[in-house]
Amino acid sequence: MILIKLAARNVRRNVVRSSLSLVAVIVGTMSLIVGHAFLAGLRVNVIRSQIDVVSGDAVLQPLDYPDERLTHPVDALFTVEPDLATWLDSSTQAWTTRLMFVPTAIHGPDSIRVRGIGFDPARDEAVFPRDAWKVVGHVPKSGAEGVLVASSVARLLSLHEGDQLTMQVRTAAGAINALQMPVAGIVAASNPWVDRSAVFVPMDLADNLLQAHGTISHVATRLADHDEEAVDAFATAFKAHGGATREVSTWMAQTHDILEIDKMRSKALNMLVGVLMAMSAMGIANTVLMAAYERIREIGTLRALGMAESQVLALFLTEGVVLGVVGSTIGCAISTAIVMYFTTHGIDLSASIDRSGGMSIPISTMLYVAYESKWVVLAWTFGVGIATIASVLPARMAARMAPADAVRA
C-alpha cells in the first residue's frame, strides 16, 4: 500500500508530463472501444438490412442470376411447385415470392429507370418487416390499388399520392409493354436500396405488366435462426428442393464483399490503436525515466535507509502502472458512455449517404453501434499492460543506482 501512495504522489509531481501520458492512454483505449463498437454496429446493420430488406436469410433465384445494381433479367422466370411450397411451409418461419424487373417509370415529361419489385401482399411483410417504413398513403393490397413508390423516385418524378405513373418494360417474352397505374403511396424505408430506386408492384399487376403468366424470379425465406451454420444447412436443403436450374444465395454470400471491407477497416483500426498505444508507452517510459533522474538523491537516501533494489524497482513500476490504470479506466469509462448512448440513439447516416450519390447498398441510414464488453476488458488490459511494460526499463535503471553515488549526486 505504501508503494501505491508513494507512486501516486510521485506521479503528481510533474502534472504536465503525467497528463500527456494519461491522454495518450485515454485516447488509445477510447479508439479501440469506440472504433470496434462502430464497426460491429455497421456489420450488424449490413446483415439486418440484407435479411430484412433484400433477400431474407436465403433466396432461390435463377441460375447465374446477376448481382449488379439495377440488373434484374426476366429471361429465366420459374414457378413454385406444390412440393416446394409444402417444404417451405414446414421448413421456414415465412417465405414469399418476388418478381424483380427494371422498368422505365414515366410521369409527365420525366422518366427514370427504377427497380420494380413485384410482391405478394399476403406474404411479403412476414419475410420483410416494415417497422421502419414511413408511408404517405398506403401499401397496396392488389394491383387495382396501384403501386408504392420510393421517396427518391417520387421526388425525381414529382409524384404524389393519387398521381398516375406509367411503367414501360420488356416482358418475359421480349416484347415491350407499358401500363398506367395509380400511386397508392410513397415510402421512405430509411434504406437506400429501397429509397433510391424501388417501386413496389402487387404481384397481379407485375404479372400483367411483364406478361409473366404466374412465374416469378425469387423465393425469399425467413428463418427463426439467422446463424451462419443454420442458414448454410437450410440453403443446402433449399437447393436440393429448388431444382437444377436455380441457385440459392444466402445473406452471407450477398454481404461477403461489404463485410470483407469491414475486416480491413478493423485491421486498420487495430494498427491505429497500436500506434497510439506505442506513443503512450513512450510517454510513460519518458515520465518514469525523468522521474528517476530527478530523484537520484531520493533514491540514494531510500537505499541507504535499507530499501532493497527490488523495492525501488517495484516503486517505479507502480508509478507506470498507476498511469496505465488511471488512463485506461478513464478511457474505458468515457468510451463506454459514448457507446451506450449510441446503442439507443443511433447515428444518422442519411446526409453522408445522400452525398455519396448513387450508393444503393442495403444499409439502414440510422446506424446503432454494438456494445461488446470484451473490447472494454481488452482495452483496459492492453492499456495497463503497455504502461507496465514501458516502465520496466526506467525502473530497472533506477533500481540499479549505487546508493553512495546516488546520495552524492
How would you portray this structure in words?
With 409 residues, the chain is α+β, with helices and mostly antiparallel strands. The chain folds into two domains: 200 residues, no CATH class; 165 residues, no CATH class. Strands 1, 2, 3, 4, 5, 6, 7, 8, 9, 10, 11 and 12 form a twelve-stranded mixed beta sheet that branches. A hairpin with a 5-residue loop joins strand 8 and strand 9. Helix 1 packs across helix 11, helix 3 runs antiparallel to helix 8 and helix 9 packs antiparallel against helix 11. The mean pLDDT is 83.
Ordered list of secondary-structure elements with their pairings:
Layout: H1 2-11, H2 15-55, E1 58-62, H3 82-91, E2 94-101, E3 104-107, E4 110-113, E5 115-119, H4 124-127, E6 134-137, E7 147-150, H5 151-156, E8 164-170, E9 176-188, H6 192-195, E10 198-202, H7 203-210, E11 218-222, H8 228-242, E12 246-250, H9 251-294, H10 296-304, H11 309-345, E13 347-348, H12 350-355, E14 366-367, H13 373-399, H14 403-408
Parallel strand pairs: 5-10, 7-9
Antiparallel strand pairs: 1-11, 1-12, 2-5, 2-11, 3-4, 3-8, 6-9, 7-10, 8-9, 13-14
Helix pairs in contact: 1-11, 2-9, 2-11, 2-13, 3-8, 9-11, 9-13, 11-13
Short description:
The chain is α+β, with helices and mostly antiparallel strands and 409 residues long.
